[in-house]
Amino acid sequence: MLTTLTLAAALLAPIGPVPGGAPASQGLTQTCPIADNRVNCYSYDDTMAGSGFNVEINYNGLQSHTGTGTGSLYEWIHRSGQEGLRQAINVKNAIEDGLSGHSLVDFAEYYAKECGATTNQQVIDCIIHSGVTKDPGFWVWYLYDEPGCPDQMIGYCQGSIAGKNYANLHAVAQYIQQNDGGPILGYQTVSGTPPLGWQSGDVAGGAVRQINDLFSCNGHVECNGIYPWITDPAVPNTGFAWYPFGYPPGNQKVTDLQYIVPLVQSTINANQPGMTRAVAVQAFSYYQYPTNGCTDISLCPYPTRAQMKQELGLFLYWGYMTGNPVSTVIYYGWSDIWCHTGHTYPGCNGQNNYNQVVWVAFTPTVSPPNLPMTTQPPHAMPTLKPRPPHW
What we know:
By secondary structure, the protein is α/β, with parallel strands linked by helices. The chain has a domain at 25-284 and 293-300: TIM Barrel (Alpha-Beta Barrel), CATH 3.20.20. It contains 13 helices and ten strands. It has helices at 4-11, 38-51, 73-82, 94-97, 103-107, 109-115, 120-130, 166-179, 207-216, 257-271, 305-321, 334-337, 350-362; strands spanning 16-17, 25-30, 55-58, 86-90, 138-145, 184-189, 237-242, 276-282, 328-332, 366-367. The protein has an eight-stranded parallel β-barrel with strand order 2-3-4-5-6-7-8-9. It has a two-stranded antiparallel ribbon with strand order 1-10. Strand 2 (25-30), helix 2 (38-51) and strand 3 form a beta-alpha-beta unit. The protein is globular.
């Protein structure tokens, strides 16, 4: 358990290189359908690989063809591997309705039709049998993305699968593990700042309760006693994001990571020690996502490189201090960086934005990274609720 003394010593540590060094993997998110936009997708990959990034989460990569020809999943993965870029295969749609459902079939329309798949399981079988997950260009199966938690009366639980079908994640993950064995990754959100703040406990509106709900299912019966949410033994890698810059309510701070990272690590320690941890750094403006309420770019400007560097430094520093150095950093995301979104901001300069992200990723990071010395150290982190013994 991380103690107040340990955290206080960390806050007062001298400036120097971040302990533990740079993460093994750094990359970006992407939304480029291979079959329909192959030339641009490959050009984007070339740029990433040429800059030194070595992983990518292309949410639309499975929108490709079967076989080994032009615009195929194999061509994309194999080509990426040749230039040192490894790819995630996004199958997160499968957890919406499970192995017997068809959400992944609908998402990967070309691929499913060409391989004759009518269920999510059959699409996964086609991917496995193609051998693409044994190619050097393959990285991980991407299985969930901010899925929320069961109690839909709580705002932070209202995730992408609406608080239901949690057993599907376990079933799909177990199936992939048993039939392929390739690594599986997903990202959960820590959501926004709890009403009682990030130093609050296991009570309604408290930080410990929020992290318990989001990362361990917190005993909710909707998880069917199969596994603690996110820390499922069939999914030994998890990630989380924190996007504080320009958040419209104005109550999120980058320095909150000194509380958030230990809290997430506590639930990992309680449920699945040894689980690897990935993170996501904000590389977008909330103006590019108008549903978040920012209507004026001056109120939510694109993060500066100093801000992104501080966020990266805090992730790395607190990852090391909690005994689980960050394995992967993803910068979210390519389309926002390059002004490709439908609601980009006036004066958006994609090349400049990208240059800043590259600088953040590949210049040395100092420690502690601009952490105010007046900040009070967190209280001793409680051990979050483990799964019951019979799970």
